[in-house]
Amino acid sequence: MPRIIVDVMPKPEILDPQGKAIARELPHIGLSSFTEVRQGKRFELTVEGEVTERHLEEARRAGEELLSNPVIEDVVNVSVAED
């Protein structure tokens, strides 16, 4: 069944202690190419049949009104999952 992906990230001005902790630990495992990490959330919404524009609009609305905290987070992506 087709899935819609909704990605939510902290707003740029919001501190991200989990992202900072990950960034700090990456060099300890030999990964030093990254200068910053931001941690977000990914939601997968399954639909029956083909994904339509209406499904995508409803997924964005769900992201903005239920899946995220609009005070500190932004919905940054709503897309059809590539399997």
TrEMBL record:
GO molecular function terms noted in the UniProt entry: ATP binding; phosphoribosylformylglycinamidine synthase activity
Pathway as given in its UniProt record: Purine metabolism; IMP biosynthesis via de novo pathway; 5-amino-1-(5-phospho-D-ribosyl)imidazole from N(2)-formyl-N(1)-(5-phospho-D-ribosyl)glycinamide: step 1/2
EC number: 6.3.5.3
Record-level GO cellular component terms: cytoplasm
Enzymatic class: ligase
Catalytic activity: N(2)-formyl-N(1)-(5-phospho-beta-D-ribosyl)glycinamide + L-glutamine + ATP + H2O = 2-formamido-N(1)-(5-O-phospho-beta-D-ribosyl)acetamidine + L-glutamate + ADP + phosphate + H(+)
Any one of the GO BP annotations: 'de novo' IMP biosynthetic process
Sorted UniProt keywords: ATP-binding, Cytoplasm, Ligase, Nucleotide-binding, Purine biosynthesis
Gene3D superfamilies, per the entry: Phosphoribosylformylglycinamidine synthase subunit PurS
Localization annotation: Cytoplasm
Main function: Part of the phosphoribosylformylglycinamidine synthase complex involved in the purines biosynthetic pathway. Catalyzes the ATP-dependent conversion of formylglycinamide ribonucleotide (FGAR) and glutamine to yield formylglycinamidine ribonucleotide (FGAM) and glutamate. The FGAM synthase complex is composed of three subunits. PurQ produces an ammonia molecule by converting glutamine to glutamate. PurL transfers the ammonia molecule to FGAR to form FGAM in an ATP-dependent manner.
Subunit and partners: Part of the FGAM synthase complex composed of 1 PurL, 1 PurQ and 2 PurS subunits.
Similarity comment: Belongs to the PurS family.
Protein name: Phosphoribosylformylglycinamidine synthase subunit PurS
